[in-house]
Amino acid sequence: MPNVLTHGLMANQVVQKLDVNRVSKAIEAHWRPFLFGSNGPDFLFYHNYLPWMKNKDIDWIRALGGKIHKEKINEFYRQGIAYYQLQRPGHEVFLSFLAGHLCHWSLDSIAHPYVFARTGLLEGETEYHHIRFESMVDAMMVEDVLLRPLSDFPTYKFAELTSSEQRIIALGYQYMILKTFDIQVPLKELVDCMKTMYQLLHVLFDPKAWRFHTVQWIETHGLKDPFKYTKHVVHGDLDQDHDILNLEHKPWRHPSHPEEVSTQSFLELFEQSIQRGVHVIHLLEASLETKGDTLTAFIDNRDYEMGKNDGLPARVFDLIYD
User: Fold this and answer.
1) How far is CA 135 from CA 4, 7, 150, 246, 297, in A?
2) Which residue has the higher pLDDT, 214 or 88?
3) Which residues, other chains included, contact 157 with Cβ-Cβ below 8 Å and sequence gap of 6+?
């Protein structure tokens, strides 16, 4: 998954191309939930992530974040639409969040295969490479592409919600998870994930790369867990040694379908994701009075990781790091 900034920048581009309808009006009225929604299920990965938090054994919520990325994609969004149709208090807030969530799927399903191809799996030694690569994409999209200083885009702003918005979103997400996976997640745990995400992004926002080495020393010598936090740091010390965005258009193979070879840059994938995001939000609008079949027919159970619906694992990589 590209990181927080890139998802937020993509969602912002999508909004500018939307027709005026219920969804776009909900986004305009409730901007923060839309931006937060552009993080998709990733906020679940922040469960009990700060070093002073207890109950570290409750990692099933983080695992649930991975499950949502890979399984029952159609049904999850179908249940999101069903929850909106219940017209509970704050349903327009939830609709804005759901539209942002679809933006997350749009970018992940198109660009995530490239990230996997260049960095490997999210496990073992390559887990750090994967997440650091995504954070570097964030920094480069701002400084090299937009030609803006990273300090203009504090990442924590993309996870900022009022307590009321947190509760509304958590209630809807709780419903979607229960109806899709038959898993009951305590409301407090979902809200705590949102709060922790905001707190951690606030601490780790490091546009001048001042905190990076200090935090890394604490990880290595104090926590005995190198890169636990610094792998998430978005900082302005840009990697000049690797072609992160594939601007040289070197070929890369789809990790689960190596017969599919591309030379597309990340910027081209980003533009494709904007078009997909606009399309799925228009399909969301068309699905609000139905069971969501118009939207899910297009999504076609394509997952967030490989952008495929056949469940084949990633097995081939063209790694950018030695």
Assistant:
1) 8, 11, 12, 15, 32
2) 88
3) 35
The two beta strands, 234-235 and 205-206, are: parallel
If pLDDT is split at 50, 70 and 90, which confidence band does 122 have? confident
Distances (CA, A) of 208 to 93, 135, 213, 218, 234: 35, 14, 11, 19, 10
The helix (run of H) or strand (run of E) holding residue 107 is helix 91-119
Residue 134 is encoded by which pair of tokens? 């995504």
Domain ranges of the chain: 4-299
Q: Which residues pair with 235 in a beta bridge?
A: 206
User: What are the contacts of 12-18 at 24+ separation with CB within 8 A?
Assistant: 13/274, 13/277, 14/103, 14/106, 14/274, 14/277, 14/278, 14/281, 17/274, 17/278, 18/278, 18/281, 18/282
Is residue 257 within 8 Å of 116, Cβ to Cβ?
no
66 forms beta bridges with none
Contact yes or no for 249/264 (Cβ under 8 A) = yes
pLDDT at 207: 60
Confidence of residue 66 (pLDDT cuts 50, 70, 90): very high
Contact 293, 96 (CB under 8 A): no
> What pTM was estimated for this model as a whole?
0.91
The Cα 172–Cα 190 span in angstroms is 10
Contact call for residues 176 and 185 (beta carbons, < 8 A): no
